[in-house]
C-alpha cells in the first residue's frame, strides 16, 4: 500500500467547543492508484489530506506511508507532495526556476536538475515555455507548472486538493484529461480531493464518498454510480429516485404500483436512476417494477428529455429519455403514463 489510514479521527477545539472534522476514516490506497475523496464542502476532505501530508496530527488513529507508521513524522520527512487550488508559484521566478527550485535546494547536481526539469516540462506539455513568468501564463498553464514543481522531486504520492477549482469549466475538463494522462505517465499514486462528482467519476480508479467526517462508500466510479450504498451517495452523485417502504415477498407496494426487490423483506430504501426508467402508455409486464403516474413537467435537454412524473401519493419521480434524431416526445404534460424498470436497476 502507498497510503493507509486506520480509524483516523481529527478534533478541533474552537471557542470551547469540540468539532469533529474527521470521525474515523479507514483507507488503503495501493501504489499507482488515482484515488479521489469526494464529498460536499465541510465533510472533512481537506483535513484528511492534511493528515496524510503531515500538516495536521490525528487526534486518534494511524497514518502509514509505504507500510511505515508516519503518524508523528513531520511533513518534510514524508515522501508526499501537495498541490493546492492556488498555485502558489514564485511570481518573480521563470517557469524553469519555479520547477527547479526544490531540486536546487537539495543541492542536486546541475546536470541532473537540467535533465529532470526538462523531462517534467515535457510531461506537462510546457516545453518551450521555460523562460515565461507566471503572470504571462493562463490559469491552466500555471497549474501545470505547479504540478511539474510538485512532481519533479519524485514523491511517492501526490496529494491534490481541488487543484482545478479556479479554472473555468472548459479548461477544467481539458485539465482533467491531462491530469489523468500525467498520472499514468509518471505512475505515482494520486490522491485527489474534489466536491465535483463528474470530476471524480472521470478521473478516478477508486472514489471514497465522504459525508460529515465519514466515508459513506468506497468503490470504482461505475460501482458508485450504479450501486450507491446509501441514500446520501445516491443523492450526491447524479440524479436519483428514492422509494421507501415495507417489502413483503420481494415486492415493495407503492402508490399506484410495485417495486421488485428480490431477496429483500421489511423496511427498504430503493434508488433508481432516471435513465433506467422507461415511460409508456401500456401496462408493463409482471417481471418489471412498474408505477402509474401523471406527467407534471417535460424539459427538453437536447440529447434527452427530463420528465417529472407525479404518483398517486403526490411524490414525484424523474425520468430521462434519450431523444432519437427523429423522435417526438413520448409523453406530454398531463398524460397518464406507466413507468417501468427492471428489477436489477433498483438498489
Ligand atoms: P472540506 O475540505 O471537505 O470542505 P474540511 O476538512 O476543510 O472540509 O473541514 C471539515 C470540518 O472541520 C468543517 O466543519 C470545518 O469547519 C472544520 N475545520 C476545519 N479546519 C478547522 C480548524 N483549523 N479549526 C476548527 N475547525 C476546523
Ligand atoms: Mg477543502
From TrEMBL:
One CC-aspect GO term: ATP-binding cassette (ABC) transporter complex
UniProt keywords, alphabetically: ATP-binding, Cell membrane, Membrane, Nucleotide-binding, Translocase, Transport
InterPro entries xref list: AAA+_ATPase (IPR003593), ABC_SmlMolc_Importer (IPR050093), ABC_transporter-like_ATP-bd (IPR003439), ABC_transporter-like_CS (IPR017871), Mo/tungstate-bd_C_term_dom (IPR008995), P-loop_NTPase (IPR027417), PotA-like (IPR005893), PotA_ATP-bd (IPR017879)
Reaction(s) catalysed (UniProt annotation): ATP + H2O + polyamine-[polyamine-binding protein]Side 1 = ADP + phosphate + polyamineSide 2 + [polyamine-binding protein]Side 1
Domain ABC transporter residue range list: 3-237
Pfam families: ABC_tran (PF00005), TOBE_2 (PF08402)
EC number, UniProt record: 7.6.2.11
A molecular function (GO) term: ATP binding
UniProt keyword annotation of Transmembrane present: no
Function of the protein: Part of the ABC transporter complex PotABCD involved in spermidine/putrescine import. Responsible for energy coupling to the transport system.
Subunit comment: The complex is composed of two ATP-binding proteins (PotA), two transmembrane proteins (PotB and PotC) and a solute-binding protein (PotD).
Family: Belongs to the ABC transporter superfamily. Spermidine/putrescine importer (TC 3.A.1.11.1) family.
Protein name: Spermidine/putrescine import ATP-binding protein PotA
Species this protein is from: Nonomuraea fuscirosea
Designated gene of the protein: potA
